[in-house]
Amino acid sequence: RPRRIAIVNQKGGVGKTTTTFNLAGALARRGRKVLAIDLDPQANLTSSLGVEMKEGDPSVEELFVEEEFDARKAVRETRIPGLSCIPARPRLAGVEIKIFDAFLRETILDRKLEGIRDEYDFLLLDCPPNLSLVTVNALVACEEALVPIEAQTYSIKAISDLTNTVALIRSRLGRGVALRFLPTKIDGRLKVGQEILEAIKGGLKERVLPPIRTDANLVRAPMLRAPVGFAFPRSKGAKDYARLAEELLREPASA
Amino acid sequence: RPRRIAIVNQKGGVGKTTTTFNLAGALARRGRKVLAIDLDPQANLTSSLGVEMKEGDPSVEELFVEEEFDARKAVRETRIPGLSCIPARPRLAGVEIKIFDAFLRETILDRKLEGIRDEYDFLLLDCPPNLSLVTVNALVACEEALVPIEAQTYSIKAISDLTNTVALIRSRLGRGVALRFLPTKIDGRLKVGQEILEAIKGGLKERVLPPIRTDANLVRAPMLRAPVGFAFPRSKGAKDYARLAEELLREPASA
Ligand SMILES: Nc1ncnc2c1ncn2[C@@H]1O[C@H](COP(=O)(O)OP(=O)(O)OP(=O)(O)O)[C@@H](O)[C@H]1O
Ligand SMILES: Nc1ncnc2c1ncn2[C@@H]1O[C@H](COP(=O)(O)OP(=O)(O)OP(=O)(O)O)[C@@H](O)[C@H]1O
Ligand SMILES: [Mg+2]
Ligand SMILES: [Mg+2]
Fold first, then answer.
1. Which of B131, B153, B222 sits opposite A153 (nearest CB)?
2. Which atom of ligand 1 is found nearest the CA of A212?
């Protein structure tokens, strides 16, 4: 029953964290129980959700490096009803080296989440800008992936590398995430963006979701520690992420 | 004599590659001999410069993993007079693990570049979106760093983490890069951007460079495999990067 969605794109700054943060908010506003998991050592999602980390507080790192660890111990509640978080912290940057030699190192996160995932309607995993072991763990732990893409030059190469990684996982594991593409920072005025977006859609067809338009409120909302649907409910950003939540609720997990 | 500049910011998508590509072009237009080094496994700079990699072609990876390697063997000429490139390739993603146990692993790049750097006026190093060993190698190999920053929510935390890393290097090595900040994607119309930019400037004072404005030509230029000063010489992007080159030529390396 729980939907497990990785928000992934190895290209930097395309809107992964903005999407995880505001989609989580939109689903919570629709009464769903959401667990947002921060997998980026830069911990932007963690700070956007207002989760403050003290010395000794467990984070997602413990899920990777502790042999026996109940993931529940790392879960933090946020001020938003129905929205919980497993936070990241800077030390997470060193986790790849620590798990490099571990047995079945690509499936650590999947196994650690087994125990808690049925308590939620949605698990959203915010990935870092790379295709490292941490990102692979996220892809293995999920059934779906949302890929925010900009109408920009380097997007096409990034998409191709990502689909190769997913295909590799599918060939090794017998299953792989259903990929869906989310155009972000879409500015109706920019013509070069339109051309690139059409080229991308041409290659991906039915798997492209309704776009998220540029909206300064999406920059402001994290400063207020509240998803845009709560902070600026009438804004373009709020409407677009509500529409995305609607689309995901309507469409089941399969591609 | 050669100026060695790392283009660095662990936040994704802030304009590191766009800055390396177009600053290299602007310096080449001013008759300088420039070596642009791609340190990102996603190799966006490499493809923007039109450098095609075949099986067996050496890349920056060889500088990290080969004991004795003449960096000259990895240098590729581009179509732009005075602009050369040491390319990256996807395999570079695995280099951190390979050098993790190496002796003086933070200084490998510096030592490998010693032999060739006097042949150039400028070395520009395009860093990946993280503070990994590769990025640390770039900071150790350079005397200056250009930090592209967006007028965005997560910039301030990113700047603080970066200055901590530089301070750590300075404490261990007795020297550290002179940091200069380059506001990018500045859109005069966006008010929230103005507020964040003022806050950032307030903290950084004289070390903030004249900004680079948003310009769709900066998205188009890599598609033409030509820096914006060559592809769209009258554009805002061309003017702003020419002004940046001017500022760097005027100001010597010390902070
Ligand atoms: N639709 C939008 N309109 C305006 N600004 C946006 C939009 N989406 C994202 N941004 C801004 O773009 C910047 C990058 O977004 P974000 O941090 O979500 O990307 P990311 O893919 O998570 O980056 P990273 O690769 O570093 O993790 C942020 O400052 C964010 O506020
Ligand atoms: N001044 C600008 N105006 C318009 N678009 C820009 C500008 N600067 C950069 N961009 C666009 O923003 C996107 C991200 O820029 P770029 O790839 O240079 O960032 P980066 O920091 O190198 O990213 P990464 O962290 O992934 O290496 C690119 O599509 C680029 O074309
Ligand atoms: Mg992010
Ligand atoms: Mg780049």
1. B222
2. 1
pLDDT at A207: 87
Average pLDDT score over residue span A108-134: 97
Q: Which residue of A has its CA nearest to B221?
A: A153
Question: What is the C-alpha to C-alpha distance for residues A237 and B253, in angstroms, rounded to an integer?
Answer: 43
Question: Cβ of B128 and A130 within 8 Å?
Answer: yes
Distances (CA, A) of A79 to A30, A47, A50, A76, A225: 16, 13, 8, 10, 9
Ligand 2 atom closest to the Cα of residue A153 is: 29
Let me know: does B236 contact B217? Beta carbons within 8 Å.
Answer: yes
**What is the per-residue pLDDT across B204-231, written as a single tens digit (0 to 9) for each?**
766 899 999 999 999 999 999 999 999 9
Name residues whose C-beta falls within 8 Å of residue B37's C-beta, 6 or more positions apart in sequence: B60, B85, B86, B123, B124, B125, B126
Q: How far is the CA of A57 from the centre of ligand 1 (A)?
A: 27
Determine whether the interchain pair B14/A12 forms a contact, defined as Cβ–Cβ distance below 8 Å.
yes
Q: CA gyration radius for chain B?
A: 17
Sheet holding A3-7, edge to edge: A76-77, A83-86, A34-38, A122-126, A3-7, A144-150, A178-184
| pLDDT exceeds 80 at position A204 | no
Helix (H) or strand (E) holding A26, with range, is helix A16-29
B208 forms bridges with which residues in the sheet? Answer: B181
SS3 B49: coil
Give CA–CA dist B37/B129, Å, rounded: 15
Q: Name the stretches of chain B with pLDDT < 70.
A: 205-206, 253-255
Write out chain A residues lying below 8 Å of B10, CB-based. Answer: 42
